[in-house]
Amino acid sequence: MQLFPNLFSPIQIGKTTVKNRIFMPPLSTNLAEKGYVTDALIEHYSNRAKGSVGLIITEVTTVEPVYTYLPGDMSIYDDSYIPGWKKLVDAVHQYDTKILSQLFHPAGISMDACA
């Protein structure tokens, strides 16, 4: 008897089908530079996709410019970030892996003083 018979079977979430039930939770890498996606970030996430993860949730992604949480966090608060995000999403999608972002506003818990 298989312990997890559905682990590698697709799952429907709303209108989206994920190829399996292996999900990667958001984990900080601190590989972004001034909020921008880097080649190191693309390599990090595409390696997980290549390893058959069905859904990746990216690390903390700040949504406004006043606060950051940790140095090296990703950002998406203006259009200048879109090209890097597009490269990241395209790299992950080539392995039929879905990706979404953990949007974040640190407000009073910003660690700018620690940077």
Describe the structure.
This protein has 115 residues and is an alpha/beta fold. It has a single domain (18-114), classed as Transcription Regulator spoIIAA (2-Layer Sandwich), CATH 3.30.750. It has two helices and six strands, in the order E-E-E-H-E-E-H-E. The chain has helices at 39-50, 82-93, and strands spanning 11-13, 16-18, 23-24, 55-62, 74-75, 98-104. The strands form two sheets. Strands 3, 4, 5 and 6 form a four-stranded parallel β-sheet that branches. Strands 1-2 form a two-stranded antiparallel ribbon. Helix 1 runs parallel beside helix 2. The longest helix is centred in the middle third of the chain and has 12 residues, at 39-50. The protein is elongated and about 50 Å long. The chain starts with 10 loop residues before the first strand and ends in an 11-residue tail after the last strand.
Task: List key phrases describing it.
115 residues, alpha/beta, four-stranded parallel β-sheet, two-stranded antiparallel ribbon, 2 helices
